[in-house]
Specification:
heterodimer, A: alpha/beta, Fructose Permease, 7-stranded mixed β-sheet, two-stranded antiparallel ribbon, 28% strand, B: alpha/beta, Rossmann fold, 4-stranded parallel β-sheet, 46% helix, disordered N terminus
């Protein structure tokens, strides 16, 4: 139970999360960690409109999420925690002990990033941040949908996952 | 992109080949696939989807958007655009019946045709069978 998926995805709440992961994992709540979204009622309403009524969405800043993570981990229901970028997830991990694995679900192209997978593009500083997480014992893997094979960070960074 | 955008009145957007597939079916049934332009969110960030959608709307002077999932990134992008362009009409959960109805209502504004089409699409979802003892 508790939080089944800690995912980095620049689309935050979207079809792959709500349906692709939500149905097989029976997710009933999402914790969306993003400082900007947490400060915007309009953004929150936008994301709430995208989820079915039986699914709860909680919006938090990194600081709030770190304080409340143990509460969510103790929830009887299954949930997912989302961040839109690596830096936000790394900041959250810095502030809590409750995260042992991270899913790379969608980090798309932008200037300065190199393609590692169809859905993962990384800048050098982002690769460094992921390596640092792995060095701390965090299980970092890439998997866009549950039916796909999870790819370990080494496979992602070496380009083996593209073969 | 659609097979032809002559006379396009709406954008169809969704996952994978959802839009292209639906519009292909509309073309096969009615010969009016050109009523739509299409886009996929495949391998795009949220920002990319919004930019692509904005380009399609501007390029074809469209104010009606059909999308697939309420939670999909195309729907999210459309809602963001609605914030700055309140005239945009968004229909989520679009299906073939929705688009077929839309193409036949050319005598009313596209926004009005979209409202009607949404009702038709909803009504087209029908379940039959499933009686006990069936195989």
């Amino acid at each position: 139970m508790a939080i089944e998926l800690f995912r980095i995805d620049d689309r935050l709440i979207h079809g792959q999360v709500v349906v692709g992961w939500g149905q097989p994992l029976d997710l009933t709540f999402i914790v969306l960690v993003d400082d900007e979204v947490a400060s915007s009622e309009w953004e929150q309403e936008l994301y709430r409109m995208g989820v079915p009524p039986e699914m709860d969405v909680h919006f938090h800043t990194v600081e709030e999420a770190a304080e409340r993570l143990s509460h969510y981990q103790g929830d009887d229901r299954r949930g997912a925690l989302l961040t839109g970028d690596i830096e936000t997830m790394a900041r959250l991990i810095d502030r809590t002990r409750g995260i042992t694995r991270v899913n790379l679900g969608g980090i798309h192209h932008r200037a300065g990033r190199t393609q590692r997978l169809r859905y993962v593009f990384l800048a050098p500083d982002e690769e460094k941040a992921l390596r640092a997480l792995a060095a701390r014992g965090i299980d970092v893997s890439a998997q866009d949908v549950p039916a796909a094979r999870p790819l370990a960070l080494n496979e992602v960074l070496s380009g083996e996952g593209n073969r | 992109m659609s097979e032809s955008d002559v006379g396009a009145r709406a954008l169809v957007a969704g996952h994978g080949d959802f839009a292209a597939g639906l519009v292909s079916a509309v073309g096969q049934i009615t010969g009016r696939g050109d009523a739509f332009v299409t886009m996929s969110n495949r391998d795009m960030s949220a920002g990319d989807v919004e930019r692509a959608m904005r380009e399609q709307l501007d390029g074809h002077a469209l104010e009606v958007i059909f999308t697939d999932l309420p939670a999909g990134s195309c729907t999210m992008a459309a809602r963001r655009l609605q914030r700055e362009r309140p005239a945009i009409v968004l229909v989520t959960g679009a299906n073939l019946a929705t688009l077929l109805d839309f193409v036949f209502h050319t005598d009313v504004p596209a926004s009005e045709a979209a409202q009607h089409a949404a009702e038709k699409g909803r009504a087209a979802l029908v379940v039959t069978g499933g009686a006990p003892g069936g195989h």
